[in-house]
């Protein structure tokens, strides 16, 4: 049996799946936590990747590997390949002013037409402008800029040479200095942000293109800080009987949302992901160019497009509400389901991390409509679930305006296991919701991409998909109407 490994280096953790390349059957898996915070040294992702690989029994028997990861994070390297400063993640909002000035300088319509994006604090380009303005010495030391999944792929490649940095079109399309229509970087946009464009950017590989894992010499890998052991030993000794002398293909990798789309098998439904971020996305043949900035015109991992709306507040809204009520997530779900739709008038606007859609980086969350009679744990739990979903329903409307078919939604991500989320989602979205069996769909998509490097061909190999459960319920439009009124108070400030 030929095995492939898929890695999801996401905001909160690193997950590894090892699957049969031909059928997609899960063989083994592992995971490890990432530290909290929106500014993280990439070495933590490397440690977590090694722990997650060890947990999954290492790479023994594996013929191809792919890394998917959280999008947009700014990783700056100096000319020796050393990390210049902690990476600023997609949910770090310090570059909000840089985003606003970049948008003003060219105009939102021009950004949307040129690259399919209007800058918000999440995008890499705004972080580079922030770096140039606030840390000029670090900006000057920067010889290469890459994304989280590019950096981990480069570490796995193990040569230590900046010229060996690679990326893929899906993640490049979220930087703010890549044009996914012509598949080329846009040096004048990079220069607008950083003040120069003479930095190394990762070479963009095609969807099934690959390099080779652990291709560096012993000297090169020890320069990367692996000490006496070389990278192959490091990766293969984690499992029994590793095929240490065979070439292991290292796929291009992908942004996590593009990988999730590969993992759930694409298809007609819109995908809603409830991880740290809340994401509404679909596959399209034409790039979205939305001057309102609500829909980002990203690329997917197969050569098509991935229109996407993203909120900063999803699963962690439920984590915070459970903490606030002093219960665990199971009890939070029970409480939410014990309250009526609309939570007897309690509305949560869950901007706990500021917000990206709508673009309100400095906003904070609020509970509205509390009275002596409705201020119960059950209503607050229900309001948290409804508020999180209402934020995403705005993205669903925006995707529909871009031409996506929103007659059904597929729900994935950590919070999709919550019974309350599953049952309440159709009442808020107003369409049936299907939930694939719990799994790591980003890592699965990466594994499928790895299998594609082995099979070749114009499309990724077809894998048998897990059974889905369908949830249907009558829409309750008042929930969205009341949420809309409460959220409008921020927009009209
Ligand atoms: N039963 C549950 N109910 C609600 N949320 C859950 C449940 N189980 C896990 N989660 C949440 O899922 C989140 C992690 O999801 P994940 O998709 O892995 O995030 P990310 O990809 O951003 O790292 C955590 O915030 C966790 O609390
Ligand atoms: O910024 C975006 C998409 O534009 C986020 O979706 C990040 O890619 C992080 O994803 P998770 O770790 O929450 O899955």
Automatic annotation (TrEMBL):
CDD domains: ASKHA_NBD_FGGY_BaXK-like (cd07809)
Positions of the Carbohydrate kinase FGGY C-terminal domain: 271-453
EC number: 2.7.1.17
Sequence positions that bind substrate: 71-72
Presence of the UniProt keyword Kinase in the record: yes
Entry superkingdom: Bacteria
Principal EC category: transferase
Domain Carbohydrate kinase FGGY N-terminal: 4-208
Keywords associated with the record: ATP-binding, Carbohydrate metabolism, Kinase, Nucleotide-binding, Transferase, Xylose metabolism
Short name of any one Pfam family annotated for the protein: FGGY_C
Transferase among keywords: yes
Catalytic activity: D-xylulose + ATP = D-xylulose 5-phosphate + ADP + H(+)
Active-site residues from the entry: 256 (proton acceptor)
Residues at the site labelled Important for activity: 8
Family, per entry: Belongs to the FGGY kinase family.
Free-text function comment from the UniProt entry: Catalyzes the phosphorylation of D-xylulose to D-xylulose 5-phosphate.
Name of this protein: Xylulose kinase
Taxonomic source organism: Lentzea pudingi
């Amino acid at each position: 049996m030929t095995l492939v490994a898929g890695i999801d280096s996401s905001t909160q953790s690193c997950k590894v799946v090892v699957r049969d390349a031909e059928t997609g059957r899960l063989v083994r898996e592992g995971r490890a936590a990432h530290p909290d915070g929106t500014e993280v040294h990439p070495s933590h992702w490397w440690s977590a990747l090694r722990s997650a690989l060890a947990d999954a029994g290492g790479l023994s028997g594996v013929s191809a590997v792919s890394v998917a990861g959280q999008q947009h994070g700014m990783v700056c390297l100096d000319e020796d390949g050393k990390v210049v400063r902690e990476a600023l993640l997609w949910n770090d909002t310090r570059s909000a002013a840089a985003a606003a000035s970049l948008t003003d300088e060219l105009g939102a319509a021009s950004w949307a037409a040129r690259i399919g994006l209007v800058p918000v604090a999440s995008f890499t380009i705004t972080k580079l402008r922030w770096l140039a303005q606030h840390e000029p010495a670090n900006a000057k030391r920067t010889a290469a800029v890459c994304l989280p999944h590019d950096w981990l792929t480069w570490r796995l490649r193990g040569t230590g040479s900046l010229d060996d940095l690679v990326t893929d079109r899906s993640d490049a399309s979220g930087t703010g200095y890549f044009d996914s229509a012509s598949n080329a970087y846009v040096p004048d946009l990079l220069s607008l942000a950083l003040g120069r464009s003479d930095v190394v950017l990762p070479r963009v590989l095609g969807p099934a293109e690959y390099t080779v894992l652990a291709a560096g010499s012993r000297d090169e890998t020890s320069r990367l800080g692996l000490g006496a052991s070389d990278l192959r030993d490091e990766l293969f000794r984690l499992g029994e009987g590793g095929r240490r002398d065979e070439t292991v293909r290292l796929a291009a990798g992908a942004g996590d949302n593009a990988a999730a789309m590969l993992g759930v098998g694409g298809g007609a439904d819109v995908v809603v992901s409830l991880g740290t971020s809340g994401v509404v996305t679909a596959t399209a043949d034409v790039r979205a160019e939305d001057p309102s900035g609500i829909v980002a015109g990203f690329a997917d991992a197969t050569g098509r497009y991935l229109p996407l709306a993203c909120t900063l507040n999803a699963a962690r809204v439920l984590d915070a509400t459970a903490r606030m009520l002093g219960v665990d997530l199971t009890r939070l779900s029970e409480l939410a389901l014990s309250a009526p739709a609309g939570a007897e008038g309690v509305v949560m606007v869950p901007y706990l991390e500021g917000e990206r859609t709508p673009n309100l980086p400095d906003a904070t969350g609020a509970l509205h409509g509390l009275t002596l009679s409705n201020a119960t744990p059950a209503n607050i739990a229900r309001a948290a679930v409804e508020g999180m979903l209402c934020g995403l329903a705005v993205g669903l409307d925006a995707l529909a305006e871009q031409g996506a078919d929103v007659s059904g939604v597929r729900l994935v991500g950590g919070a999709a296991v919550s019974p309350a989320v599953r049952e309440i989602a159709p009442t808020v979205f107003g369409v049936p919701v299907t939930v694939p069996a719990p799994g790591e769909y980003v890592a699965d998509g990466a594994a499928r991409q790895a299998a594609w490097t082995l099979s070749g061909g114009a499309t990724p190999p077809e894998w048998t998909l897990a059974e889905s459960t369908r949830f249907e319920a009558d829409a309750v439009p008042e929930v969205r109407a009341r949420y809309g009124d409460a959220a409008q108070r921020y927009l009209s400030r």
